[in-house]
Every structure is written in structure tokens, then in C-alpha cells.
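Structure request: Sulfurtransferase, Nocardia gamkensis.
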Amino acid sequence: MGDVLTSRVVDAEWLRTRLSDPGVIVIEVTNTPGAESDRSTIAGARTVYWKDLLWHHSRREFPAASVLVDRLHALGADAESTVIFAGEPTQFAAYAIWVAAAVGVGGDLRYLDGGVPAWRAAEAANGTVSSDCAAAPIERAADAAEPTGDAQASESPEPLPEVAPRHEEIVVGRDEVRAALGSSVAILDLRSPQEYSGLRVSPLTEPIDHGAERAGRIPGARSLPAQDLLDARGLLRPVSELRERVAELGIDGAEQIIAYCRLSHRAALGWLVFTDLLDDHRVRVYDGSWTEWGSLVGAPIED
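Returned structure:
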């Protein structure tokens, strides 16, 4: 596993040795609506429902950078923080990093390999049973040390910085996907084989098969299930294995790559793998993904 760790990808052992550092802020990004921010699996972490953090409050679009900065600040993240996103499932953390990059939120944002499930497994292997934890009160790194003598307490750090948005660089919409059909642009489908083949519109893990009006795939899309990027433990595969799997797709000559799934979470994991582990910066994620394409009137579909 060590060869997949980058400046943006950390593992459970790395995090375990730094949990007491007030400058390390852990945010569990969950699929549970109404998740309580002060209850978590990882001790001291904050928990947030992914839509509450990463979508506009009323429209199907990303929040403005300033809004996302404020939301992250409310969860304890500031300009001096190392922010660890722990997904449950793991792709939600990759989605958080992708959205932040798209809208222009900077800072030290990292992905916990395997997310919350991997943390539970690592704790169990160490003889520690992870359970519902109460988060500690939000404490800024600058406030962690008591002033001595005439020293004055430092001012609270600034929120995470706003930087140049990368939306055009890493995000595509339906019109760009349609224009890419039949071109030198490779389209990768990160959904499960059942979704790719048109048997379902949502993963088998979903209790109700929903998410689009039609099943199938975007014409010409090549299947790269997000699960193929992970090992049996849910951790990112070694880089050598990832390169072998990607080589099977025959996309070396593609000018660009468009990745999609059902809601773009798994596609964002693909973007993270290509960008951070394979040093391949051709990938852009189709934000609407199959939820949009499979419901568009007149959109071409293969099955």
C-alpha cells in the first residue's frame, strides 16, 4: 500500500499517529442525510452529509467557493489545517477534493485511503473497536497552546484560501460529452458491470434501483468499474496494478478522458487515481453523469 501514498493520499496509520495534532482536521463525508456533525467513527472527527457540504443549498450545482470555505470552517478547517476527508463510502472523500478544486478552495486537503470502512478495519486489527464517538470542541491550532509570560494568544487562523477555480480543467457538462462522441476523447464508465450493461441504473448496494429514467451507457464508453481501482480491503491498489488495469483500456492515444458514473462520486475517485497516482492529467469528470444522461430526452444510449 505504501506506493500509493502521495502528498494528497494518506492511510490509516498515518492518521492514527497524528490524531492528537490540533492542526489535523478529520471530516467524515457520509451518505447519511441528517448526519450529526458531532458524532463520528474516527475520534475527534466531524461528520457531514455530502450534499450539505458539497452542493448548493437549493440548486443542483456546486456551492460558491466562499460558501464551501465557510462550511469547512464551521467544521474546524482553516488555512493552517491539514484537512483529511474520510469517505463513507470512500469515493465521497475523492468527490470532496474534486469539488473543492473545481470551485477554487485551496489549502492542504487530503484523502484517507479506504475511508471510514478502512479505518474501522484497521482499528479492529489493532484490537480497538471503533464506535460512535463524540467530537471534541472545535479548537484552532493557533489556540492550542496557552500564552506564557507576556506572550499574547495568536489570532485565530484565516479560513481556507480561495484559489483559481479549475472547473473548466476537471469538469465537463452534457454538451461537452455529446460533442465528444465519436471523437478522439475516451469516455470511461466507472459504474458497476451491472450498470454498464444496462441491467441496473444504480449499484447493487442500493436497496432501490433508481437514479435515471433509462438504463445503459454513453455510446462508446469503456468500462472501468471503480471497484477495480481498489483491493479486497477497499484500499487503492498498488500503482503497478493500476497502470496494468488502465493499459487494458487502450486509451494511451486519447487526447482527453471523460469519466462518469451515476452521480460522479466514483468518477471523482477515478480522477484522483489518474491525477495523483498515475500522473495523468487528461481526466475530466462529467458532473451530471448517468443521473442526467439517462434522463435526457433524445440522448443516445447503448445497452
